[in-house]
Amino acid sequence: MSVDDRPLASFRVSMRDIDIYGHVHNSRYLDYCEDAVVEFLRQRQILSHFRHTSSGVAYHVKKAEITFHSPIDLDDVVEAKVDVEKIGRTSLSFAIELFRQRDGAHCASAHFVWVCVGLSDSRPTPIPEGTRAALSPG
């Protein structure tokens, strides 16, 4: 497995995430994906770029889309991979993939779009250059 193929984050499914059918409730997948994006930012040491108190801007979720491929069950270990899909003028797009560790099954694919907004008016504003540079490859 190359460095780029390694999971970014992993976590074990808790009882609180399980629905009456014994697998993870659909809404929890979005929580897992959001946690994976935060871990992506933390591991790259750029989480401060996304804290309104240190960056001077905020990021709002504009779109969250998920496609389910295979169920995740109680006590499964879920591995997540995150990529920056696109950096626009005022928005960021992330791709998140969730896998079941025990068998490598691809469980879900998600796409998030975050919009950078001003603190005083919550209107779209350009992504700061430092943030743009920190997210850009190489």
TrEMBL record:
<comment type="similarity">
    <text>Belongs to the 4-hydroxybenzoyl-CoA thioesterase family.</text>
</comment>
<dbReference type="InterPro" id="IPR050563">
    <property type="entry name" value="4-hydroxybenzoyl-CoA_TE"/>
</dbReference>
<dbReference type="InterPro" id="IPR029069">
    <property type="entry name" value="HotDog_dom_sf"/>
</dbReference>
<dbReference type="GO" id="GO:0016787">
    <property type="term" value="F:hydrolase activity"/>
</dbReference>
<protein>
    <submittedName>
        <fullName>Thioesterase family protein</fullName>
        <ecNumber>3.1.2.-</ecNumber>
    </submittedName>
</protein>
<dbReference type="Pfam" id="PF13279">
    <property type="entry name" value="4HBT_2"/>
</dbReference>
<keyword id="KW-0378">Hydrolase</keyword>
<dbReference type="InterPro" id="IPR006684">
    <property type="entry name" value="YbgC/YbaW"/>
</dbReference>
